[in-house]
Amino acid sequence: MLTLAMSAAALASPDARMSGCYDRLAGRLLARLRLGDAAATSPERPWWVAIAGGPGAGKSSLASAVCERVNAVSPGAAVVLPMDGFHYSRAELRALDPPDAGSLLPRRGSPWTFDAEGLCASLTRAKAASEGRLPVYCRVKSDPVPDGVQLLPSHKLVLVEGNYLLLGEEEERWAPLLPLKCLGSV
């Protein structure tokens, strides 16, 4: 899995000004897929790329834009798997919160309000099988929706994006999913 860290300049740029960055990144990924980069992919296995950053950093925009560009050249080759689908639901947070504490729901979006175990287990299963259904976050419902995105065996590029995807204290959890870490600016 390739891991990307976004530079401060990239984080501050409006989405429209990022178009060149999206084009370059999609081009680099397409080139690696075409070359059959041994560290990246094989004909049977997709290449997994982690995109991590803070809230509002542009992870979802970057993942979506790169996915669109890759799929425009190689239809159906790429998919985005967002970590946001693994927010604990409002009902789960209320159940986890001590009576009358009201501390978890207002802090929603903090690392401990995500089902990291569920995310890791789902990604591990999906990666092993090269397919799976994962939840997505619905802003209208303000809750996760099951089976919102599907990983298919035909996907050759899997973009996994999330706030705490590579959180340092969780490094051991992600190690089996992230055998290759290449940190750099995009």
From TrEMBL:
Among the GO molecular function terms of this UniProt record, one is: kinase activity
Is Thylakoid there in the keyword field? no
Alphabetical UniProt keywords: ATP-binding, Nucleotide-binding
Give the signal peptide as a residue range, or say none if absent.
Answer: none
InterPro entries recorded? P-loop_NTPase, Zeta_toxin_domain
Q: Which residues form the Zeta toxin domain?
A: 40-112
Q: Do you know which Pfam families this protein is assigned to? A: Zeta_toxin
User: What is the protein name for this chain?
Assistant: Zeta toxin domain-containing protein
Q: Cite the source lineage.
A: Eukaryota, Haptista, Haptophyta, Prymnesiophyceae, Isochrysidales
